[in-house]
Amino acid sequence: MKAIEVRGVTKRFGSVVAVDDISFTVEPGSVTALLGGNGAGKTTTLSMLLGLLLPSSGDIALLGQDMIRHRYRVLPRVNFSSPYVDLPHRLTVRENLTVYGHLYGVPDLKGRMADLCRDLDLTDLLDRPAGKLSAGQKTRVSMARALLNQPELLLLDEPTASLDPDTADWLRGYFQDYRRRTGATLLLASHNMTEVERMCDQVLIMKTGRIVDRGTPAELFARYGRDTMEEVFLDIARDRRRPDGPSWGEP
Amino acid sequence: MILSIRRVAGLCLRHLYILRGSWLRLLEMAYWPLINVVMWGFTSQFLSNNSSWFAQAGGVLIAGALLWDVMFRGNLGVALSFLEEMWSRNLGYLSVSPLRPGEMVAAILVMSFIRTMIGVLPAALLAIPLYHFSLFSLGLPLLVFWTLLTMMGWATGLAVSAMVLRFGLGAESLAWVMIFAIGPLAGVYYPISVLPGWLQSVAWALPPAHVFEGMRAVMIQGVVRTDLMLSALALDLVYLTLGIGLFLYAWHGARVRGALLNVGE
């Protein structure tokens, strides 16, 4: 069973095709990146995977369950984090985590919260309102919320956006450790090339709603004759070079 | 659809935390009903000394004001509980949690009930020492009136929430506007018979017109009009079904348009 199975998914908003006939699979226990520029269709794809957005056509299965027809069977085993979604500002960290603990039916909620707060260094922030936290603290709280139900599949939208390099590096280490400990599958949409190189087993590169290339970071470096993911990304973004051939601009 | 009490309680807890942490919100809930009862209470006292009709049933205006607030607060309780999620940009996380739309509706209705109690009960209690009028003297019919008006408030609040989901936060003022459109036709302070003929037909299509006529029948004639209560209940069921249906339809529409992740103006 694949952790994620996407077949022929398209999303149209009127005459605009935001995601155009994409198909991919993600192996259980792996880390996959959706890489692409602004408007490439990454967030739209994540939203469809979660059932926040209904595809115009195609099929999506998470952890073996059809997400369009049986979404609520799989949601307790999945979680999501995004810098573009907030937690209620007036609620304290403890209150926020308690509410979501109830929504996910987390057993031994106090124990789980204590473990997460220790791991994510949140213990001193528990009684502080979420709205009064720094960006880094908010991200850690958002992570704690996303990990409350010990998700088998974790979807992350730009997980280290707006974080300083130190906090971002620490967070990447935490994700890798979480995957090692639990065998969870991670899918992240990111602009951060270092993050993708360091964490991911598979990279799906999106452009104008399509997956234009895919592979492990090493495969992509070899295919484009580049040393970094940033160079590969720029080649694709600027139509400078196509795999196994001359640059687009060359005769 | 299976409702999980735990998830419904979880979402209620989120709103109770907000209320517990904000005395200003609690004060606002009780403030308007208190102002209403003071204003209409003195008006009622003046009229009862100068009008034989009102002299028969002192307190009919106060009762009207209090029961109108039940419907108004019921509507506002639903709409504001939903708007809180949009204001805090929390809808995305709620939507990817196992919380089902039906459970969200259930939690919002529970919170509306709690908000209405917080808002209207102090005003009802204040009327006792101020005007020697106890709304509770209506007895069992009060429970029926309260329930029927709450149901209509819920239906309106759900319709407002659906509009906000469809049109964004630009439509939030409907939470206050929509219910007041019903006001003149509800017959809160006057019988439906004073309305022009064609407006009477419209008024009778609304549950509160039946409820307030029923209230006056109890207070002035001492008669419990079960016919009015039954027609109000039937209409309430229609409006509440429409309200829930509209909300769920708007929810589905938001999933088609991708509005659950990026809600705003």
From TrEMBL, chain A:
It comes from the Bacteria. InterPro entries: AAA+_ATPase, ABC_transporter-like_ATP-bd, ABC_transporter-like_CS, ABC_transporter_ATP-binding, P-loop_NTPase. One of its GO terms (molecular function) is ATP binding. CDD domains: ABC_DR_subfamily_A. Keywords: ATP-binding, Nodulation, Nucleotide-binding, Transport. Pfam families: ABC_tran. The keyword Secreted does not apply. SUPFAM superfamilies: P-loop containing nucleoside triphosphate hydrolases. SMART domains: AAA (SM00382). Residues 4-233 form the ABC transporter domain. Belongs to the ABC transporter superfamily. This is ABC transporter ATP-binding protein. It comes from Magnetospirillum fulvum MGU-K5.
TrEMBL record, chain B:
GO terms for molecular function: ABC-type transporter activity. It is a multi-pass membrane protein. Its main location: membrane. The keyword Transport applies. Belongs to the ABC-2 integral membrane protein family. GO terms for cellular component: ATP-binding cassette (ABC) transporter complex. This is Transport permease protein. Keywords: Cell membrane, Membrane, Transmembrane, Transmembrane helix, Transport. Pfam families: ABC2_membrane (PF01061). It is found in: Cell inner membrane; Membrane. InterPro entries: ABC2_TM (IPR013525), ABC2_TM_bact-type (IPR047817), ABC_2_transport (IPR000412), Nod_factor_ABC_transporter (IPR051784). It comes from the Bacteria. The chain crosses the membrane at residues 29-47, 53-83, 104-131, 143-167, 174-192, 228-251. Residues 24-250 form the ABC transmembrane type-2 domain. The keyword Transmembrane applies. The lineage of its organism: Bacteria, Pseudomonadati, Pseudomonadota, Alphaproteobacteria, Rhodospirillales.
